[in-house]
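Running co-folding for D-xylulose.
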Amino acid sequence: MAGRQEGRMFLGFDFSTQQVKALAINDALEVVHTSAVQFDTDLPQYRTQGGCHIHDDKLTVTSPTIMWVEALDVLLNRMKKQGFDFSKVAALSGTGQQHGSVYWKTGAQSALHKLESNLPLHQQIKDCFSIQDSPIWMDSSTTQQCQNLEQALGGAQRLADITGSRGYERFTGNQIAKIYEKNQDAYNSSERISLVCSFAASLFLGDYSPIDLSDGSGMNLLDINRREWCQAALDACAPDLKTKLGQPVPSYENLGAVSSYFVDRYGFSPDCRVVAFTGDNQGSLAGMRLQEGDVVLSMGTSDTLFLWLTTPQPALEGHIFVNPVDPLAYMALLCFKNGSLTREGIRNNCADNSWDKFDQLLASTPRGNDGNIGIYFDIQEITPSAVGVYRFNATNEPQNSFSPATEVRAVLEGQFLARRLHAENVGFRIGPDCRVLATGGASSNTSILQVIADVFNAKVYVLDVANSACLGGAYRAKHGLLGGDKVPFSDVVKSAPEYKLAATPNSDALQIYTALLQRYKALEENIAQS
Ligand code: XUL
């Protein structure tokens, strides 16, 4: 196995909304350690709920930047007490919640250079931030800034063509524009602006870490085709922004050695390398070892789709990011708000709260549901922007209700046709080797997996990857150490456990669902337009 060395480890960190986690793997990619610090309960002095503060306007959402630093102090101390051998870590990397931003005050870089190993980090850099409370991804207070940016760049589709997404409130460029408008002094006194992930990497480096191209794609500021900042977008948000952001780098970049602070305080090897950190969704893509042609369908309260793309087609929905593990590829992220709760609602109404009965009803109806189609947006949907429950018969006539059996099949077929439709809308093509990797709560229901296999006409595999973002950080640390673009990521993770094949499409699926998809597309477009 390429570059395997006895005893060495790779460490992945995840700075997420509610906690900071660490996960170590050995050279055979086996997980050998996990630890976590919860913000609300382990650091109650910051009075966060779910790791953040929701302000009175209900739109502004922030987290105390220094809390993230103190959480790292607590986490590393815990690992030390548990006897974790930091000296064996050959490389570390990690992830952060996407879009959040950190504002380093002039002089902060020299504070990072002079960290003293006898003191905790948070005591030494508590005065290093020009903004104390970092805006995070849950913030939606920047609608005006999004409109300004879209207008400056020539419209929403044009902004999407360049940056991979139309203007989104949580995207960092719009957050920076708001800070510049509302608090120019703080903006002007910031010598550097980091994303949560590059901020975390900066702590380990003892110097400013560059922003990686993949998480940098979640800012509405990066030209994802040229893989450099889009000057027009920077100018539309705030002056002098290029200098404050620094030059972006590929996500697998080996940034340098860990700061001597960590060597002296925790016993890291001075040779331990820090590989660029990236966004949590990008980390999950790496942790799940997504490859060209694959789709990850994560089924939780909302359903999320990760796609590996070679030729992206930015749209007014979803997000295209530069791929975190492949220098030429892209990834797409699509979020569907009506996921498990909608499926469970139909189970409760039609199948007496029982998944067994739900499965029996499903089995009693034919694939394609005799042409009946249901669209269930119980709450305002993101993809597409629409709300309401709609039922149609085989000739597209609206129906008030379906029989319980038809309803059960309709919710599953409707949801997975939508997942496929919107994946194709951003450039995904289902090829013969396409694998759907299912994860999350609903992936334990084999009847649901069969519907997915038929609708996508692709094999469905199940993944039981806990802490996928953190695991991705550890895999990426190894990838970066072995040379990033010189070694395919897929070679680095070859020895990781195999996926389990869970469902294979039926032979009539292609014909049935190709036709149904065309009808679903037209019906959904009508609903979204009205
Ligand atoms: C993605 C997004 C969230 C955060 C959560 O665009 O905003 O998934 O990354 O941590």
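Result summary
The pocket of D-xylulose is lined by residues 16-17, 97-99, 137, 170, 218, 279-281, 333 (CB under 6 Å).
The two ends are 57 Å apart (CA to CA).
Job closed.
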